[in-house]
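The protein record passed on for reference:
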Amino acid sequence: METIQRVETPYATPTGFTTDPEDLAWLVDALGQQAEEVAAAFQMLRRRGVVRLLESTMSSGEMEIAVALGGIRRSLPPEEAEIVDYLLRVERDPRHPHIVRVPSICGGAAVISGTRLPVEAIAGYFHAGKGIWDIQRDYPYLTAEEILDALYFDLDRRRNAGEPLAA
């Protein structure tokens, strides 16, 4: 039996979605997956504390869906990650697996997945002559792989925008 690791964080980002917890047909349609799989993954996210249902101001009996961002810091099974990405409207670039854009986080700027840390902040360290270990000292929860991905993302962005690669 799987041990469920709960996310203990008081902060959850409202997603703008509401639902009747017993009727997830809208999510099944959006994801194009089997109803049983979506329901099981949604319930697991709730048990983990990643997805929360909050009282809604609407009188329809539906509840507002919120996502605890601390929960997406760790890796989730693909079905659960797909639900979280949909709810948060996450944009991903397949070339940069650790970088996401979420409209409700930092105004949609590119951030390291599961954080509110903009890629631009990491790039700023690098352009100021700091190395990966300096960045990890200040952000110990980041892996070297995440930091490098942020730096490569910034270089790709500069190259595509025609900006100089050196600051």
